[in-house]
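Key idea: predict the complex, not the pieces.
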Amino acid sequence: MLDFDLTVDGWFAGLPQSQAESILHLVDSGKSEEEVGELWLSRTGSNNTVGFGVGGPIQSFYSNVKKEFAAFVCGDEKYSDERKQASEIWKNQGKVGLVSMVAALVASTVGLAAAAIVPVIALLFSLAAKIGLNAFCAACNFPANKLGK
Amino acid sequence: MDIHIGRVVLPLGRIGSGGSIQPLGTCFAVGPRKFATAAHVTGPSDEGLVAIVGRADSLSDYQDTTDQRANGANLKIASYDPLHDIAILELSDTVSKVSFIYNLGSSDMISPGSPVQSLGYPHADHGRLVLTQQSSMVGARILLGADNLKVKHVVLNTQTRPGQSGGPVFTADGKYVCAMIVGGYAPNGPSGISLGGIDPQVLHQTTHAVSAEYIAGLL
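Result:
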């Protein structure tokens, strides 16, 4: 697992103001971080509006993003080098740097743009900090005895 | 309107597996290296995303529809807000820049009855890349729900077609982009029916455009 303690507040500090305001509005209105994250990666636009883009509907990528995020924070051995880097970033750049680094890492694995998933990574860190990393990893079915540090 | 507007209002596409470019929609410059489009045009992936350059320079030119060549400038997603249906794109190469003379405004600047000019690439789903200007009028200013957010839009009294999403909506004097085309009213979503590529649910005379103030908030 990560070798530093996550604290609860401040995970959205690095987002553009309008993104942070939208996300905080949704969280404050009673949606969970999970619900907002899923919303972010599964829908576009307003209700009762059909886009005039040429591509098809947006599929949900949330489960893939969450799976890789959990692999990183919960101690999957494939990310052991990156967790060491994360410790240094945490010391030097705090939450903004950590969110940015993990977004880039997860995005490269799941084939999405890092900038598109930064808010989702911030939401997942916020959730993990709120319920505790052990509880988060248990909920993601990452048993501690099968993972490296 | 800027005489060289075709250099900064561009078709957006994605390079497919065979190397050809599939048009997706419209984008327009919002900074020396940045473009805006609708989030539903790109989705959260920027793999193979390009702005198609060199198709049009001025609106008064005769655009050659027999010339199917398409050159792309690589783009990456710099910011993404699906709730307001906005993606900000940035040129991947580190030296290219564009220049333009308009400013970003908001839907607050155009009340019902105001004339507006919108630009885009209609019928891009059929590979047609013709920069097209539509003159219309604001029919209403509305708040649309995006989950439980309320988002400022304008209803334009004009019909749009696939490929126009992400197109700018200018004030009549061309000095401000006050909104961006995102789609059409379709109660309960798309019908699932396609008649000659047309969904009957969106076959009507109005278009939704999101206020440009949310674009400025992502830059």
